[in-house]
Design a protein that fits this description.
With about 120 residues, the chain is an all-alpha fold. It has one domain. The protein is built from 6 helices and no strands. The longest helix is centred in the middle third of the chain and has 14 residues, at about 65-80. The chain is globular and about 45 Å long. About 10% of the residues are buried.
Length: about 120
């Protein structure tokens, strides 16, 4: 749902690596378009949710009431499994880890400038 909305907004099609980049929080080197939670259904039962969680991740949050702890486990798994198609992609991603890389989000932008900024941050044409 989020991916489709972002693709429609930016008028582009996101590759898997571009979508992963878009879905990780800024503190992890990219835009915070969506949260890094797994795609659990709103009405999923706790048992079903935990089965899905264990199929994706090897550990459970120490403090189960803190979303940040769950996110950290999931983000770590996603980052560890990133594979880049080229050295350019890898260097682009490393550059996103710089503290200043999200500074442009603190500026008020018109709609078109914002779209261009998002496309540049995700490495889109």
């Amino acid at each position: 749902m989020f991916k489709t909305g972002l693709e429609k907004y930016l008028n582009i099609s996101l590759s898997d690596i571009q979508w992963i980049r878009a879905s990780l929080p800024c503190r992890n080197g990219v835009n915070s378009i969506t949260h890094s939670k797994t795609d659990l259904s709103e009405d999923a039962s706790y048992k079903d949710a935990m089965e899905l969680w264990h199929s994706l991740n090897s550990s459970v949050a120490n403090d189960v009431s803190s979303q940040q702890n769950w996110d950290l486990i999931n983000i770590t798994r996603i980052i560890e499994n990133l594979h880049f198609e080229s050295e350019v992609e890898q260097n682009f991603y490393k550059g996103l880890w710089e503290p200043e890389s999200g500074a442009w989000l603190n500026v008020l932008l018109d709609n078109n400038s914002f779209k261009i900024g998002i496309r540049l941050r995700l490495g889109l044409n």
